[in-house]
Design a protein that fits this description.
The structure is a single chain. With about 300 residues, this protein is an alpha/beta fold. It is built from 12 helices and 5 strands. Strands 1-2-3-4-5 form a 5-stranded mixed β-sheet, sandwiched between helices. Helix 3 links the parallel strand 1 and strand 2. The relative contact order is 0.10.
Length: about 300
């Protein structure tokens, strides 16, 4: 396992219940001090799983790994990489005789105990090699080989786009109740909606926990909602395919608006991201200015 952040550390701990796992992360204590050393700790054919931020970091580590691996080794990218980058990396790995699998991973900080939902894309022989690890990481019926190279990250991209829309719907509903003529206890309402309601969900469970922790007004959370890229990619792909995704598009634009306006709905979304993914929230007293809207 390469990368021991919020997700990588939980996945490593879960895997170690049934497998021997070697690790590398230059920021924390690991079994290896370098990728080269990590490779020597594993018997071929090796599985080298990247759980690092998408983009430049993933690309650098992928290219470095190509210099150390041997034919039939498997490189797995479990980050939120752009699916077209994953298709390219599959082709580059193949030129080196190495197998590449892109795996969309969902589960956040809760995945250690609840399990991680896994969406794998790649050649059949490569994903079959990973099946024992998938079985250990995922809850029952929680993983699938969804298709060829790039498909795992494509499905995860759409998954995150849907997540944007669901979070926006909750945010708008609680925003309306917050401004109603009634003195509503939003923590209480989130609580009862978890039982028998048509809108019950894990996200609602997490929102209820956020209200319990931060109060019904979410006083400690600034109404500033980041986006990590997948929503933008989803909308761009929808445009390319002429597929309407108005709810997802509106949800992304609402996140943009949160960076300039003070609204309670943004507090709801920020609290939810912190609950399910451990994403940092801004303190309410901070000035809501961000020079890099792409983060």
């Amino acid at each position: 396992m390469i990368g021991l952040g919020r997700m990588g550390s939980g996945m490593t701990e879960r895997l170690r219940r049934e497998h021997e796992v070697m690790t590398y992360d230059r920021s924390v204590e690991s079994t290896a001090d370098s990728l080269a050393e990590l490779v020597t700790q594993l018997d071929p054919p090796r599985v080298l799983w990247l759980m690092v931020p998408a983009g430049e970091v993933t690309e650098q580590l992928f290219q470095e790994l190509l210099g150390h691996v041997e034919p039939d080794d498997v490189i797995v990218d479990g980050g939120n990489s752009y699916f077209r980058d994953s298709i390219r990396r599959h082709d580059e790995a193949k030129e080196h005789g190495v197998r590449f699998v892109d795996v969309g991973v969902s589960g956040g900080v809760w995945g250690l105990e609840a399990g991680f939902c896994l969406m794998a894309g790649g050649d059949d022989d490569a994903t079959a090699t990973l099946a024992p690890a998938f079985d250990s990481l995922a809850p029952e019926n929680g993983w699938a080989d969804v298709g060829g190279p790039g498909s795992g990250h494509f499905v995860k991209m759409v998954h995150n786009g849907i997540e944007y829309g669901l979070m926006e719907a909750y945010a708008e509903g609680f925003e309306l109740m917050k401004h109603s003529q009634f003195d509503l206890d939003l923590e209480q309402i989130a609580g009862i909606w978890r039982y028998g309601s048509v809108v019950r969900s894990w996200l609602l469970d997490l929102l209820y926990e956020a209200f319990k922790t931060n109060g019904s007004n979410l006083e400690k959370i600034a109404p500033y909602v980041e986006d990590s890229g997948e929503g933008r990619w989803t909308i761009n792909e929808a445009i390319n395919q002429s597929v309407p995704v108005p709810a997802i598009a509106s949800a992304l634009f609402a996140r943009f608006a949160s960076r300039n306006e003070i609204n309670f709905g943004a507090k709801v979304q920020a609290a939810l991201r912190n609950q399910f993914g451990g994403h940092a929230v801004r303190a309410a007293e901070e000035r809501l200015e961000d020079p890099d809207p792409s983060r």
